[in-house]
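Problem: given the chain below (160 residues), write out its structure.
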Amino acid sequence: MQAPHAFPAPSDATPEPKSGPNWPKILGIGCAVAFLLLGLCFGGIFMMCKSVTSGSDDAEAFLLELRTGDHATAYARMSPAYRAGHDQAAFEADLATMPPLTQHTAVTFTQFNLNNGVHSFGGMLATPQGPVGVRVTMVSSGGIYYVQGIELGGQGFPGL
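Solution.
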């Protein structure tokens, strides 16, 4: 005879697994994948923008050197092809034909273009006579950006 308060004998059977999806696990993995994809998208956009605007600091520095009269440094930023055919005196004579390059008070680039390694930056120079459109074209060689072209109000820089 069995005692009135006896427990049933332990069974060797394993408990039945829960049926249905494991929602916390599915949501956790889904969120992790979504954050990973979002991070990759934003990283890609950042890298693309950085590569397109990478020479703009050098273009602004070039224009600042022209404004402050540091023509030797500005001449060194000119493309090797230009420097091969023009000495610094010729550069300064060419520069004298475009006074807004040396008289501007500010520069704002609003257009950025990258095509086959050639960076083109378009914008406005603020001058005492009013705003003037500017486009600086640069090419990178050995990690250094060289000025390959300058347009001021639609007119190209002499010798470029």
